[in-house]
Amino acid sequence: MIAMLAVLAVSTLFCTAEAILSWSSRQTFLLKLSPQVMHIGVLFIMLGHLLTASMGFKMDVLLKQGGSEDRDR
């Protein structure tokens, strides 16, 4: 997932650079830049998911049939 996130980030950087270098007027520049803003938003969402998944805590709890975690402590 980290490699895929890196590839998407590099792709977004190249697309953004291409959009910035090929702008002719301010109005068309904003139109060309709007997809990159959406891609950057997706990158932030994926980065947030990666961080929370890597910092999360998972523990298996074995319970007797009909038992609950609170009662067994």
What does it look like?
The chain has 73 residues and is mainly α. It has a domain at 1-6 and 26-56. It is built from two helices and no strands. α1 (2-21) runs antiparallel to α2. The mean pLDDT is 77.
Mean pLDDT over the residues:
77
Structural class: mainly alpha
- Span between termini: 37 Å
Choose one word for the global shape.
rod-shaped
Strand percentage lies at under 5%
Radius of gyration: 22 Å
* Count of beta strands: 0
For the report, how would you describe the main beta sheet?
A: none
Question: What does the secondary structure layout of this molecule look like, with pairings?
Answer:
Layout: H1 2-21, H2 26-55
In short:
With 73 residues, this protein is mostly helical. The protein has 2 helices and no strands. Helices cover 68% and strands 0% of the residues.
